[in-house]
Amino acid sequence: MRAKWARDVDWLLLGVTAALVLYGVVMLVSATRGTPEGAAFLRARLLHLVIGLVALIAAASIDYRRLAAWTPMLYAATLLLLASVLILGEARLGAQRWLLLGPLGGFQPSELAKLAIIVTLARHLDSFKTLPRLRSLVPFGTHVALPMLLILRQPDMGTALVLLGILAAMLYVAGARPRDLAAVAAAAAGALPLFWNFLHDYQRRRLAAFWDPTADPLGAGYALIQAKIAVGSGQLFGKGLFAGTQNLLRFIPEQHTDFIFTVVGEELGLFGATVLLILYLVWVWRALAIAAGARDRHGALIATGIATMVAFHVVVNVGMTIGLMPVTGIPLPLLSYGGSSLLTTLAGTGMLLGIWHRRTGL
Amino acid sequence: MIAPTWTVRIVHLVIAVVVLFVVLEGRLWSLQAIQGPHYLRLSEQNRLRDYVVRAPRGVIYDRRGQPLVTNRAAFTISVLPMEVRDRPRLADTLAPLLGLDRAEILSRLDAGRRQRPFEPVALRRDASKTVVMTVEEHRLDLPGVIVQAEPVRDHLQGGFAAHAIGYLGEITEDDLRLRPGYRQGDLIGKVGVERIYDKILRGADGRLQVEVDATGRPGRVLGREVARSGQSLVLNIDAGLQAIAEEGLRGRTGAVVALDPRNGEILVLASTPAFNPNVFSGGISPENWKRLTGDRGLPLLNRATEAAYEPGSVFKIVTGTAALGEGIAHRGSLFNCTGAYRLGGWVFRDLAAYGTVNFIRGTQVSCNVMFWTLGRALGEGPIERWAKLLGLGRPTGADVAAEAAGLIPSAAWKVRTVKEPWYPGDTLNMAIGQGWVLVTPLQVARMVGVIATGGTMVRPRLARRVLASDGTEVMSWAPEIVERVPLPEHVVRTMQEGLRAVVDGGTGRAAAVPGLAIAGKTGSSENPRGIPHAWFAGYAPADNPALVVVVFVEHGWRGGVRAAPIARAIFAAASQSLLSQSGGGRP
Q1: Are B25 and A280 inside 8 Å of each other by CB?
Q2: CA A90 to CA A112: how far, in whole Å?
């Protein structure tokens, strides 16, 4: 007979997570093969995994209900950290998103901020039993808007959009009236042209390139065109692992981070891409199942936030790679190279495991 | 236990996520399963580059196997238009380095990008060592710039036989349309045998299929098609005689043609002033091109074939042959060379009075009165007919890239073109090769050849044999007799005797070579542009002709003074072989 704790672990979620991590390591090796830094990338990835595993276990062990008391502190710390990036952070690729942490390399606070916002927002929402009218959404909008503005300042539009998605999903599960959410969405859509003025030049070019990549094939449209060529040329079963020419010959910028999906599509084809999407779907389904089975509304909201976060990342990242969405630099969870993202997703997985573990009252 | 309200909404979320994933999967299906082959092709285009490997051109030899034109290893700086991200910056960098105009680089890049984006655009052929090394050093800062080994033409003796050999240049749009099998950027012969025999000389370019990375840097070689070097061409040109002809013309404007009247082999084809074809080898610079085309001496003009001149007394060969052939005169006909000829109220004056002469003597001293008399008796129609019979007034069909037709006038032609009737004075002028008559030195050479051989009209030919790159013969040209001109035996004999007398104590004695029997005719043709042109047209050995030499010196004054000595030098140099092959000539 298995131990009780073992029965309380969601092995499917854990297994899918492990499978995705492994998938990611293989793809990382392929994407960085032949570069002088290839081995360094792999070493760093394994180090990140160790840290991530520790974070996963820690997050699983902490009772989310005990976090409730820390909510204001956590929220304030998040804002402080995001503000500090703007002042102290290091700029890479035209955006200031990183804090340098010595041997661990750069750290992206906006990644971990997503988790902190989910946790604090869940507690915040849980303190209101109902959301009876449009006006009752305002406090939560504000809750997310403050860190979001700081993130937009970096600028990191992708992460900001993820936060909006998480907010919408959590409000919905918390009981907001669909018509109120629809009204907010309509208002946001109406404000989009206004938003255009606040965009950076490179963001505008990316949007323009999304509508017509061929208008500037060697500039903003370059990554999009090359990514589509890579994925499309993989056909049904791919060119074979480590045999992607678009990958090996570096036609795609950022192929080991935001564009890692191109390597999957090119080398493993529709088959490999479909397996990957199924793994993600199972992951998100397990996360939402945990939300549904949580012992209380608080736990359900946290799980919903984490599930939405990962689902949003996957849809937007894969969508941009295959030309369904404009290019926004957000990583593919568990696959893209990047310690902060991996740490965040694994910590989120740990929290899900913790919520599942505590689904029946202890 | 009733499920809490949020579970229903979580189920909605699951459905939403599933829908989004289905959309992604659908898009992947369309990209990879349906459009997969298309994108695979694009990815291949991305990574594969076809480079043309230039085949070395065939060597050009003289008739004895002395190389005249070979190839020299050289490097070409080219740009792959699709690999260039920042064209203005690249043009800024390359312009001073390659000594090219910035706008020129940009326009060539744009043209290449539009027409064949994956083919290299050659910017500088035969780049200097310093330039090649500088480009190689800055490889990483010059994405899309490649250095290709591409042999260039090396004319071993510079301007030697420049007009016969010709030079290369990048193919023009017109040639590209008219001549199948060529590609943009190909080098093609522009004039001379380089043009006529371009297909033989050029060989077949090879290809190199190379994998490149995103910055266009070449990596693995995936396939190669070896270039087949061109076949070599042996010319009929005799480098020794050609050198003597060019030496004789040095400092003068003119042309020399020497051919074998029995088979049409062209042994000398010289034209001065000449040019050095090596300036074309790396692509001619604008300054050099301007200098060549702006030169008043027209160095690019092949005066032996491309330009037609008044033949003057050399044309008396035609008039004399016509008069003999029409039965108007014979060897013993007597003419009273008083020094003047009366036509109506006009008096045509000769250079001198020679007293009473027979046909031979009249030819020897080039008595105008005799030829006026003959011309008047013949009329312009028969002169025209005989001139054309002897091959004048139309291109010879020689293997030269450009040939003038010359002009043999007729009464109808004059009415049509000059809008004036034909006057008897025109006939007198025509009889001595003045007036409207225009001939090329090559035409004169063939005409003299017909008299020398008693009626053999050949197609003059520069090319002799084609050799494969290992030296074995691929083909050779058989002598081509265009026609047998029906000349009665006595006409030929009398005309030849007259021409023999010209060199033997007549106006052409400056061409005489002791021990070699030479026949010929001098000419000093008045022309509207200045002092007379000097001509000498002759052949040797007189009794068994094997070599025709025509010398033309523009504004050279007297043919017997300026042209005949050049011919003598050629005959003298050739005399050994002429005497041995003919078994000894008359002293």
Answers
A1: no
A2: 17
Q: Do A292 and B6 touch (CB under 8 A)?
A: yes
CB contact under 8 A, A236 and B36: yes
Continuous segment of H or E residues that includes residue B483 = strand B481-484
User: pTM of the predicted model, to two decimals?
Assistant: 0.67
**A300-316, pLDDT tens digit by residue?**
999 999 999 999 999 99
Burial category of A197 from C-beta neighbours within 10 Å (exposed 0-12, middle 13-18, buried 19 and up): exposed
Average pLDDT over residues A336-349: 93
- Check pLDDT > 70 for residue A194: yes
**Pick from A250, A307, A322: CB nearest B31:** A322
Give the domains, in start order, of chain B with CATH numbers.
Answer: 75-150 (3.90.1310.10)
Q: Is residue B245 within 8 Å of residue B547, measured between CB atoms?
A: no
Per-residue pLDDT at B214 exceeds 70:
no
Mean pLDDT of A339-361: 90
From residue B186, give the alpha-carbon distance in Å to each of A66, B119, B284, B551. 80, 12, 15, 37
Identity of the residue numbered B113: R
From the list B11, B27, B40, which residue is nearest A322 (CB)?
B27
Tell me the pLDDT tens digit for each residue of A245-287: 777 777 777 777 888 999 999 999 999 999 999 999 999 999 9
Per-residue pLDDT at B211 exceeds 90: no
B341 alpha-carbon distance from chain centroid: 44
CB A331 within 8 A of CB A36: no
* Residue A347: exposure state from Cβ atoms within 10 A (0-12, 13-18, ≥19): buried
Q: Which of A216, A233, A248, A321 to mutate to test the interface with B (most CBs of B within 10 A)?
A: A233
